[in-house]
Structures are given as C-alpha cells and as structure tokens.
C-alpha cells in the first residue's frame, strides 16, 4: 500500500486534471480533495497537465488526506494496530525518509528503479530489460526532472540558472554534474564522464545553443545588488517547457554575454566556483588567527576579515573540471561496511586531523570546533575528499553515504544543515555545515582537540 499510494497527492496539487464529456467538451477541473472523479456527472475522459510553479515535495504531505478514498477503514485500522509499523508507513507516504526506516528505503529504491525503467535504463543489471532511449533523450528528460523538482533552482542569487526571454541559462558545470549524478543514480549506464561529450550530444540535437562552435557562454549575470561573471550553457526554453503556462517566472535581472578574455581557453570549460559554496565558505568571513596560533583560542582577538574573493577565483576544495570529468559518479566498492564511501570519508577525516593536514578554526578551515561539537563545512569538505579520491564517487554521493552513518546531529526541524553566525570586526556572515556532536568522531584518541572557536555562534 505504501508503494501504491506514495504519489497519490500529485493529482491534487501538482497536476491539473480536466474532465471531458463523451463529445470531448470540458466539464471542468477535477478536485481530488472534493471526492472521486466518478462522482462528477457526464465525465467520460480526462486530460492531465502539470501546474506551473508547483511546490517541490508538497504532494507527499497531501497524500495522507486522500488515503481514505483508496484504502478502506478496515485496512487502516489493521495498520494502526502496530504503532511502529504504522509510524513508518505514515512517514513513508509523507516523504519523511528519516523516520520511514526500512520501509522507506524499500519504497525509495523501488521508485528509483521504476523511473529508470520508464526512462529506458535497461543496461543496468538491476533493471528489467527495456528499450534504451537515445542518450540525448535521457539527458533532456533528466534536465526536465531536475528543474521540475527544484534540484536546479532558478532566478535568484546563487541559483543554478536564470530564465530570460526565450532562453534558459544554466551554470555549465553545476548543471551537467548534477545531471550526470541523477542519471547514474537512477540506473543509467553509458553516461559520459566528460562534460564535453555531454555538451556535444546536446548541441547535436538542438537542445543547446552554442556560442559560435563552443558550448560555453561567458556571461555576466546581474540582479538587485549582485553580479557574477559565470560560464553558462544556453537552452531554448521551449525544449524544457513546451507549454508557456508550465514555465516558471522570468528572472528580474540580466544575463549579458561577453567575449572571453584571451587567457581563457574556450576549448575547455573553466573551473566555475559553486555560488552556494562561495556563500557557505567561511573564507574571507572568519576573523584570521594570529600567525603563531593556527588554532583559534578563547583569547584570539577577532581582526579585520580578508577582502572578498572575486566571483571567479578558485575556491579551495572545488575540483577542477578535468578532475570532475575524469571520474565516474558511482563508486567502486561496497555500499556498506568499512569500504563504504561514507565510512572512508570519516576515516580520511580522522587521518587528516591526526596528521594535522587540515586547518581547524581558521578562515579557510573545513573543520570548526563549536560548543555543540564539530562543524564540517559542507559541501566544501566533501568536495575536498572527492577531489583527492576520485574513484570513491562524486562528492554528492560521498555526502549522501556519510549521512547514512547517522553520526551527525539533526536540527530541531529535522533538517541536516546547521547555520552558524561568523562574528567579524565589522560584519557578520553565515557558515553552514554538518554537525557532529561527538568530537571523538574527528579527533581520535591521542589527538589534541582544538578549543571552541569563539567567533562562531549557532543560529537558531
């Protein structure tokens, strides 16, 4: 029943279901919350379209309101007789996979395989044989999915893309890396590890509009009070959303193409810092410690923060495009046990701390000791690991496997990312990361634990 009902809320909030008479004339929009479709007189057929600007994940929270139309009261009472089972069942329908236990994991795995099979990912041994769709079609479908689900946010500072007129502009490396990781996670094989290969495929089928002979556009993206020089790919909006009513709102700013500088190599995609990373990374925000004290102490006076970096400057922990393109996003090894990517990341973290190869409590540090435990700046620290261990999977995969270890502290609202205010001499900023409540998870026996960083304070 969890499998059958897990997307039940979509017709209520994500889709617009139009009812028709036998002669094809419309008899209105069906509201599932008002009752079954069969209660509407003269209804012989229906058509379905997706609502524009729908809220990501909202349908999961609506599902429980419709369950009684499908499942009889006797069945619900039987499930409720086992409170532990019932709690997992309800959490699964609501999309709360942190509380759904084994049942939620089964439904997630089955849902992923179902989507992969529908997309034609039949080369994977986990999926039943099916007609394999051409690569360009899978890439386009994957892009539509990521945009539809909000995995590639749009039209704001730090977004993955901007909709301007008839064009959708996407941050090149960020979008293609996310697309590759999504397709591999759903069981597709034969996905190129090179971004250039993916660009060529999209360009050949008219999905990507090139800049001359190159896929990459050098642009200036500007909004209210902010501006970034970014490398983007340009996609005609009709290739993503054929119906104008289904398109999101337009960007209230500008995307201005510019000629690449002479030092920029158009043959290869330049390393593009993740804007979200730039906002999360404490570089330039944390007060710098004195040179003689690489670890901040309680008497370390806060001094003037470093000047902000240019938007296109290399950020430590962001791997160059060549390193990202040369690795497969799926790991090689077991998904559980000591060879799991999450366990290997934790072991790497402990070794780096033991050898004092990682800064602690400094402006560029990925590790900060706070009153609540140890804060790992995310995703920067996972990108550091993936850059050094490219055969262990993408940083997204490593972070996901690490969260599976459940050694981190969740926030009261159930989310995983903690926010800390960074108090400088003249300004405040925010650093985000994963909180480990036990310092021994990083600083193993025999390693001196740094003092609490006095410049970081948890944001409630």
TrEMBL record:
Pfam families xref list: TraI_2, TraI_2_C
Annotated segments matching region Disordered: 246-342
InterPro entries from the UniProt entry: TraI_2_C, Unchr_helicase_relaxase_TraI, WH-like_DNA-bd_sf, WH_DNA-bd_sf
Skewed-composition ranges (Basic and acidic residues): 260-283, 326-335
Domain Putative conjugal transfer nickase/helicase TraI C-terminal: 341-457
Domain annotation Uncharacterised: ranges: 2-213
NCBIfam families named in the record: MobH
Name this polypeptide is given: Uncharacterized protein
């Amino acid at each position: 029943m969890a499998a059958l009902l897990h997307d039940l809320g979509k017709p209520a909030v994500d889709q617009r279901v139009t009812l028709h008479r036998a002669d094809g004339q419309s008899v209105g929009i069906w509201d599932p919350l008002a009752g079954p479709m069969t209660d509407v007189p003269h209804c012989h057929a229906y058509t379905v379209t997706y609502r524009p600007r729908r809220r990501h994940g909202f349908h999961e929270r609506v599902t429980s309101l419709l369950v009684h139309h499908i499942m009889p009261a006797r069945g619900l009472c039987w499930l409720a007789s086992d409170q532990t089972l019932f709690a997992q069942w309800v959490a699964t329908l609501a999309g709360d996979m942190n509380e759904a236990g084994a049942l939620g994991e089964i439904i997630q795995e089955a849902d992923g395989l179902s989507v992969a099979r529908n997309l034609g990912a039949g080369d994977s041994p986990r999926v039943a044989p099916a007609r394999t769709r051409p690569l360009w079609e899978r890439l386009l479908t994957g892009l539509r999915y990521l945009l539809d689900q909000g995995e590639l946010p749009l039209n704001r500072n730090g977004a993955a893309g901007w909709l301007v007129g008839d064009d959708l502009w996407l941050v090149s490396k960020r979008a293609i890396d996310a697309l590759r990781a999504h397709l591999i996670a759903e069981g597709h094989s034969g996905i190129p590890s090179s971004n250039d290969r993916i660009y060529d495929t999209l360009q050949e089928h008219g999905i990507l509009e090139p800049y001359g002979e190159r896929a990459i556009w050098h642009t200036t993206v500007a909004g209210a009070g902010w501006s970034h020089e970014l490398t983007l790919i340009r996609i005609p909006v009709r290739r993503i959303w054929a119906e104008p009513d289904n398109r999101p709102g337009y960007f209230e700013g500008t995307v201005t193409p510019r000629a690449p500088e002479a030092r920029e190599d158009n043959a290869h995609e330049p390393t593009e810092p993740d804007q979200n990373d730039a906002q999360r990374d404490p570089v330039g925000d944390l007060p710098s410690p004195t040179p003689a004290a690489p670890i901040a102490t309680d008497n370390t006076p806060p001094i003037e923060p470093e000047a902000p970096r240019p938007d296109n400057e290399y950020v430590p922990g962001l791997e160059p495009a060549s390193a990202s393109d040369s690795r497969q996003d799926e790991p090689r090894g077991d998904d559980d046990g000591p060879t799991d990517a999450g366990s290997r990341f934790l072991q790497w973290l402990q070794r780096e701390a033991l050898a004092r190869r990682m800064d602690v409590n400094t402006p560029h540090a990925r590790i900060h000791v706070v009153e609540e435990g140890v804060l790992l700046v995310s995703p920067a620290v996972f990108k550091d690991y993936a850059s050094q261990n490219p055969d262990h999977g993408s940083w997204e995969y490593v972070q996901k496997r690490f969260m599976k270890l459940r050694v981190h502290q969740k926030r009261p609202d159930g989310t995983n990312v903690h926010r800390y205010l960074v108090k400088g001499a003249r300004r405040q900023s925010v650093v985000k990361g994963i909180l480990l409540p036990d310092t021994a998870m990083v600083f193993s026996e025999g390693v001196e634990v740094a003092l609490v960083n006095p410049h970081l304070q948890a944001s409630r």
